[in-house]
Amino acid sequence: MTVTDLVSYEDALASYDPVMGLEVHVELGTKTKMFCGCSTELKQDANSQTCPVCLGLPGALPVVNEIGVESAIKIGLALNCEIAEWCRFARKNYFYPDMPKNFQTSQYDEPIAYNGYLDVQLEDGEIFRVQIERAHMEEDTGKSTHVGGATGRIQGASHSLLDYNRAGIPLIEIVTKPIEGAGARAPEVAKAYVAELRELIKALGVSEARMEMGQMRCDVNLSLRPNGTETFGTRSETKNVNSLRSVERAARFEIQRHAAVLSSGGTIVQETRHFHEEDGSTTAGRIKDNAEDYRYFPEPDLVPVAPAREWVEELRGGLPELPRLRRNRLKEEWGVSEHDMQSILNAGAVDLIVATTDAGAPSDQARKWWMGELARNANETGRGLDELPITPVQVARVAELVTAGDLNDKLARQVIEGVLAGEGDPDTVVEKRGLKVVSDEGALGTAVDEAIAANAAIADKIRGGKVAAAGALVGAVMKATRGQADAARVRELILEKLGVEG
Amino acid sequence: MTDNSTIIKLTAAEIAAKIASGELTAVEVTEAHLARIDAVDEKVHAFLHIDREGALAQARAVDAKKAAGEKLGPLAGVPLALKDIFTTEGMPTTVGSKILEGWIPPYDATLTKKLKAADVVILGKTNMDEFAMGSSTENSAYGPTGNPWDLTRIPGGSGGGSSAALASYEAALAIGTDTGGSIRQPAAVTGTVGVKPTYGGVSRYGMVAFSSSLDQGGPCARTVLDAALLHEVIAGHDPMDSTSIDAPVPPVVEAARNGSVDGMRIGVVKQFAGEGYQAGVVQRFNESVELLKSLGATIVELDCPSFDLALSAYYLIAPSECSSNLARFDAMRYGLRVGDDGTRSAEDVTALTREAGFGDEVKRRVILGTYALSSGYYDAYYGSAQKVRTLITQDFEKAFEQVDVIVSPTTPTTAFPIGERADDPMAMYLADLCTIPTNLAGNSAMSLPCGLAPEDGLPVGLQIIAPAMKDDRLYKVGAAVEAAFVEKWGHPLLEEAPSL
Fold first, then answer.
1. Whole-model pTM?
2. Strand extents, DSSP E, B148-275
3. Lower Cβ count inside 10 Å, N or C end of chain B?
4. CA A50 vs CA A43, A143, B238, B329: distances in Å
5. Which domains does chain A have, with CATH numbers?
6. Is B207:B178 a contact under the CB 8 Å cutoff?
7. What CATH number is given for B4-305+393-496 in this structure?
8. For A296, which residue in chain B has the nearest alpha carbon?
9. Which distant-in-sequence residues (6+ apart) come within 8 Å of A162 by Cβ?
10. Best residue in B332, B336, B370 to probe A by mutation, most A CBs within 10 Å?
11. Looking at the keywords, is ATP-binding present (chain A) (predicted)?
12. What is the Cα gyration radius of chain B?
């Protein structure tokens, strides 16, 4: 990798003002592809999910997936966009072997949604409004695997394998207007925007938006202009930045790189850049000095999309609460700090906690288990919280047992461990492992009597008024009952039997 | 027992009736046509592929149905020649191009499925101008087709194989596609009947695209009724084709059985005349207009100024769409692959394959279309052409406020000699002068024989144009004209063709 000269971030911002444009591609979670009935399921055998349409065989014709259009409209509405009353698909003509028709069915000057905005909340709570240029529908390409070379790139490969399973999967491309005025916070805004967009897409239920699975991909376009000037500088387009952290790093790196080039008297070349996860750097890709000519024209094989206004309003009426507002509401309801809320969010625990409280658990209990024991387990086993084999209903049941005094914390942890190990639901685990708190007063009384008899000296101290010494007897009882007694009740019994006020 | 020479001259309606009544078996009918193909197709070259086994198997299935007492469809057992532009599962589909040589489609076009479901016997695939680009079938990569009236002349194009198969009695029915006149002009120059249905009337799914917004499959036959029977089988909404019209098929068969022009207002467009029209064509056309009057129609002269721009608009829109439609022929997935010796890049192999696989006319149009869509030229070329298209549609709308149908010559001349216009694309393009406006507007039109040009004794076609989804009017008028001419001539025109 070539070493790129950078100036420090602070120096860059002292002289220049960054302007960003973010292009995000979201793979919709429709069951079938955008223009045919093939399944969209991931990780299937190569070319097993194809048909004449998505293979672009001669004679085959596309038909629009209604759910794809509906998803696009929902996204548009959630982004406060206007929804086109009439729009067409367009052909974007260019050659690539993994694109079956050698044109991509996309939208050009008639996007389904346009002129919107998304308010994003920065870490200090400040709201930044990102203007949305458009959101349009298109189809994904197939996948090329280059074989025989050292790098997996096409250079040096002996041949390439083509898998068209992904070809035709519906994509929504969301393009921002130039993001100005973010200053030093530009990288943070970029990250917050993509994060907010991801939450929004998930809340809408139109995609799982897993960046690590390529279901959501981001291009970061960035330029600098001298502070106090209006005209945009030449931009670079960093492609396929596929994690939130990377979005922030890519923007930061490009600010430093552009500043280094500009302040040494150089000029920025309009080009695509590759982002490198290892060190957060970018390297040059294709030069885009002449705007590529995609020879767009309206797709004659598809009739225009003209969503009825009643339908659009119906979809608007069904939109879920926006993630940012919901987050702020939950933060209030739960009484947690911004920092804790951020942790809950980062852990992907919001929906699980909500589901657990919906199942009857107090919110502090729900948070405690998901952010404690369960987060630890997820972390250790490299799984997402939602991938753990325990349901919010089961967590709520554990919390219920604790509240009722049937379990103490220690026992509750063992119950959860049992559920995670596949031993059954919480009640089954309690049953099988015999974990219930001993609350049989007779059995407990006997254990207390035995402890007093075995520790006569301590018992005398307590009778003499040293109530604090009761702890030792409680410990002995707990040990005798293998931790299954309610410690508070044990203490009460000891004091009672020794005739001392607690 | 009816002999083969009688069987092949039967109309599709007659064949179906005789099979239904048990007078003929579908196998006898198929064998008679296969024998005719064996006898004459070496000279005519209407077929690119003959599916002897498949045809006989289908015929046997029809006979089995009949034997089992099942009800047969109106075209069951009728042999048909299918233009080699519709995909046929397990049967080659070349579109007249080297680039698809050897390709066996894994799926049937909707139209192919409908034919099979109707128990129509598909004899094979017919020759055509490569990718349907041409008016003479000379652009086929597999050699030209002869016009059965005079084998040294063109049978029209692009569907010259289909029209020639009908005119030579190799098939009772045929399927064509019409982007700028490729059904009607071949029908005109071979003395047969051809219909371009309303755009969206017949599914395009599985029809290899030339120009998506103009292409339309349709029926070819020797009589108006046969065309209607076939029209009804292949038409109708197809959920696989987004541009297919979701409405009932116009009552074409009923119209064909009840031909009449009495009380109709029929338009004659003044733009469909003038320089370039052969005298004999004009003469037969004028006689047709007189005939319509005598049958009770009122003739209205129409002015459709935008029609003068139709050819120019067409030669921007069709090449533009084709430049994109043909981009998929890249040697990656199917068809021809040239130069893949393990050292060349994908781009080089694609370039070599296209160089070898596409003919001159295809290359000419791809280049033209690529240019017309290019940034900076789009508005001037493609954009302007679309505006002209709107004007033409408006001219038709205004015309159809005054008249029920429009008539014109189908094509300005009779069949020209093979080779005459091969090196003069502009002269070739003029063959579609009268047919193109209909494609641009998306409405329906028919060509049927209206006599022989006195100067060369070759067939002249009369074009009837109807509004969109009023295809039945074509058949109502066509049937009346056909009946009147047959009465006047004493026999169908095709009987005047020399025997092969």
1. 0.89
2. 173-177, 193-196, 217-221, 265-269
3. N
4. 14, 13, 20, 18
5. 9-311 (no CATH), 321-416 (no CATH), 441-497 (1.10.10)
6. no
7. 3.90.1300.10
8. B373
9. A47, A97, A98, A142, A143, A144, A145, B332
10. B332
11. yes
12. 21
DSSP bridge partners of B126: B47, B83
Strand A297-298 and strand B47-50: pairing? unpaired
Taking the C-alpha atoms of residue B129 and residue B162, their distance in angstroms, rounded to an integer, is 11
Optimal mutation site among B373, B374, B378, B439, interface A, most CBs of chain A within 10 A: B373
| Amino acid at the residue A159 | H
Q: What is the largest CA-CA distance in chain B?
A: 73
Which residue in B238, B324, B341 has the most chain A C-beta atoms within 10 A of its own C-beta, making it the best mutation to test that interface? B324
Q: Which residues contact B110 (CB under 8 A, 6 or more apart)?
A: B203, B205, B206, B238, B240, B241
Kindly give, in sequence order, each residue whose CB lies less than 8 Å from that of residue B77, ignoring residues fewer than 6 positions away: B15, B16, B19, B25, B26, B29, B30, B59, B62, B63, B119, B121
d(C-alpha B301, C-alpha B406), whole Å: 10
Burial A412-421 (b: 16+ CB within 10 A, else e): bebbbebbbe
What is the value of ipTM here, to two decimals? 0.96
Pinpoint the alpha helices (H) of B201-309: 224-234, 252-257, 279-294
Q: Which residue has the tokens 């039967």?
A: B10
- Give me the half-sphere count of Cα atoms (radius 13 Å) on the Cβ side of residue B90: 5
Q: Which residues of A touch B (CB under 8 A)?
A: 52, 55-64, 91, 93, 95, 97, 100-103, 160, 162, 291, 293, 295-297, 300-303
| Helix (H/G/I), strand (E/B), else coil: A302 | coil
Q: CA quadruple B153, B157, B160, B166: dihedral positive or negative? A: negative
CB contact under 8 A, A100 and B240: no
| Cβ–Cβ < 8 Å for A65, A209 | no
Q: Is B345 on the interface with A (CB under 8 A)?
A: no
- Each residue's pLDDT expressed in tens, for chain A with a length of 502 residues: 345 678 999 999 999 999 999 999 999 999 999 999 999 998 899 999 999 999 999 999 999 999 999 999 999 999 999 999 999 999 999 998 889 999 999 999 999 999 999 999 898 889 999 999 999 999 999 999 988 877 777 777 888 899 999 999 999 999 999 999 999 999 999 999 999 999 999 999 999 999 988 899 999 999 999 999 999 999 999 998 999 999 999 999 999 999 999 999 999 999 999 999 999 999 998 887 666 799 999 999 999 999 999 999 999 999 999 888 998 999 999 999 988 988 898 888 999 999 999 999 999 999 999 999 999 999 899 888 988 999 999 999 999 988 887 888 888 888 999 999 999 999 898 888 877 776 667 777 888 888 888 888 888 888 888 888 888 888 888 888 877 777 877 888 888 888 886 5
Tokens of B153: 């002349």
Consecutive H or E run containing A429:
helix A426-433
Of A56, A300, A301, which has the smallest distance from its Cβ to B328's Cβ?
A56
A202: its two tokens: 């998930």
Tell if the CB–CB gap between B105 and A59 is shorter than 8 Å: yes
Tokens 């993001």 belong to A179
CA B331 to chain centre: 29
| Distance between B387 CA and the closest CA of chain A, angstroms | 14
Among B residues 437-496, those touching chain A with beta carbons less than 8 Å apart: none
Collapsed DSSP state (helix, strand, coil) of residue B464: strand
Concatenated DSSP letters of B310-351: HHHHHHHHHHHHHHHHGGG-SSSSSS-----SSSS-HHHHHH
Q: Does B279 touch chain A (CB under 8 A)?
A: no
In one-letter notation, the amino acid at residue B37 is I
b/e for B5-14, b at 16 or more Cβ within 10 A? eebbbbbbbb
